[in-house]
Here is the input.
Amino acid sequence: MSQPDVNKGNSRRRKIFPLSWGRVEKTSVVIGALGALIGIVVAVSNFVSQQAAPRPPSRLQIEQNMVGELVAGESYARLSALVGTPADFDVKLPSGNSLYQYERQWETIQMVVNPEGKVLSVGVYAKSASFYPHVGIPGAQIVLDRTLISKSLPDFQPDRVNAYCGAHQAGYFEAYDNLPMAYDLRGLVVGVSNSETTNINVLPICDMGGACGELSPSGDNLSAAYARCLLALPIAGKIRNGLPVSAVIVTAPDQPITTDMLYTPYDILTGN
Here is the structure.
């Protein structure tokens, strides 16, 4: 009787071929290359994510945004909280109002406040030519150190003007009184001042010489007669079309511009 052939049927013998060192090395190289590629992809992805993510604002940007939120007509408690530090100067004025002055890194802020705690005006004087807050009134957004004086309210002529060049400070200021409803019935003063700083260009102001000197107002006051005389001269065009606004004062709605609002930071600092 013949024996069954155990190699027949569904059972098959497997042939095992040992891996050669060449194959192992090639496999390692491929795996290593894939790992490096994955690492590069991850790094690139992280880099793109970092570039796409918004960067946090700088201290300068935070300060500029804060200044843009200081709106005259609000309570002093609210605006002083926005500034976040106590006023450096608190001056009681003859009118009964108070003037609060804040000495900041890039600017000086002034607020004139009535006895009831309402902010009658906000003034901002740039100390740096790289400080660009948006300030102003509805219908006239002004960027400090960028907007030219002549472009502040191009549809209007200034009602009153003052200009001076002294040993300690120089300045040119224009007042716009009685603005219409489109401007929220506010008053606006724009100008250039080097009060408390040497970083603001005032040379054109000091080139005026004695122009219209007989009509020049005293102290920080503004004059309509001086405006009519000075604005007709070429030197006024050089100032208005050549210098950006570095100082601005905005009143509360339906609030006239008063002498309380025209003290420069240097006046308050020195007690003049």
